[in-house]
Amino acid sequence: MRGKTEVNRRGNAFVIGDAAGLASRDMGEGIGPAVTSGMRVAEAIVHNQPYDVRSIPRYSLPSMLRGIRLMRRKPTVGTLNTR
Q1: How many helices (H) and strands (E) does the chain have?
Q2: In 3D, which of 68, 8, 10 has the Cα closest to residue 33?
Q3: What Å distances lie between residue 10 and 36, 50, 51, 73, 75, CA to CA?
């Protein structure tokens, strides 16, 4: 589960995903934070910037609920009009 990792980078080695303790606290979900941390590492390498995981969300449920609400607003392709 989400925990504090002392070292996120040592030289050219980066700690990401579950190894960085990024599984969400509410659902134990780890793939979303893992992908996000991998993208942050890529940006850090390309732009020669520090790598920081503190801004990766700690909870996955609020973002999942936002996604569900967005999906409900958009009409599905191929829906039939039953009037």
Answers
A1: 2, 2
A2: 8
A3: 19, 11, 11, 45, 48
From CA 1, how far away is CA 33, in angstroms rounded?
11
Does pTM surpass 0.70? no
For residue range 6-61, what is the model confidence (pLDDT) as tens digits? 677 888 888 888 888 888 777 777 888 888 889 999 999 999 988 888 777 777 67
Residue 28 lies in a domain: yes
Please state the domain count of the chain.
1
Q: Which helix (H) or strand (E) holds 13?
A: strand 13-14
Angle (CA) 65-69-70 rounded to 5° is 115
In a domain, 4, yes or no: no
